[in-house]
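DATA SHEET
Item: assembly model
Revision: 1
Owner: S.N.
Input lines:
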Amino acid sequence: MRFIPLVVAKPELQMAIDEAILRARMEGRVPDTVRLYAFSPSSITIGRFQSVRHDVNLEEARRLGIPVVRRITGGGSVFHDEFGEITYSVVIGEDYHPALRNVEESYRYLAGPLVDALEELGLDAGFSGLNDIVANGKKISGSAQTRRKGVILQHGTFMYSTRLEVLARVLRVSKAKLSDKGVSSIWERVTTLEREGIKMNRWEAYELLKEKFSAAFGPEEGELTDYELELAERLVEEKYGNPEWNEMR
Amino acid sequence: MRHHVGEHKAKKGLIRIEFDERDGKAERVRITGDFFMHPEEAVQELERKLEGHRLEELEQLIDEFFAVRMDLETPYVNVEDFKIALKNALKE
């Protein structure tokens, strides 16, 4: 297993790198990989099937200079605050562990280090539903995964000090979804480390997650191959940097 | 022409079905939401399968699609959820 140290970059490149690792791993060119990254500028990613018009407040996002990029994975819209959120991604063969064959178990297995991190900080943390992690009863992390030919890509968020007031302004969350969760606003549903009384900067959050992913998977520090970087560049041009992909729905 | 939109909150994720009704047939079918389905290309295939068909045939077509696609994974979502979203769209 390979660990790729923190990459801070624009959203189209982050999404392209995740897909490039997935493809390279499917072709047997690279080992299983864990990486941590942060978005700059602050960005929104939306799920593979989401409707830009219905699920994002595009005018507000444009006004605030927040780009919107569509992920390869399903799931919902995410606000990645430049100085409030670390994203993790894991690309791993399904045969790495028996838990990975089952979708629900695999979310828990691969995002487990995030729960370990929250518990070390003294928070009451655990999984909720298919792909969320809650701290003191509120969502602090969400993950999404896809599977191609026996390889899983799972990526997700870890909100240490995300500005929830910005999140609430730029994401459109349907009333049906909120009421299904038994809440009437996003405020009652989402939290951050800061909101739970734990102050942390990007590097502290990064080091904590790196330690927990290392303990869980024992990866060796490495770097992206030229093959992955070239593929990622191409994916930025053809896909993630292209309105045809980002605004397709 | 009439635009139809129907939503349904499944156990995981919202499913939204939209289409234009022209001469009793569905056009420009769009299935959106924050659900999961892999392989992802299947959603587009389902949209195409529904396009150009009479509204009363759509439910049956959804059934047929899922019955033959044994490779599909839709965690916490099933064919009934898509049919409820469709019914909600037809109600409009």
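QC remark: Chain A has one domain: 2-246.
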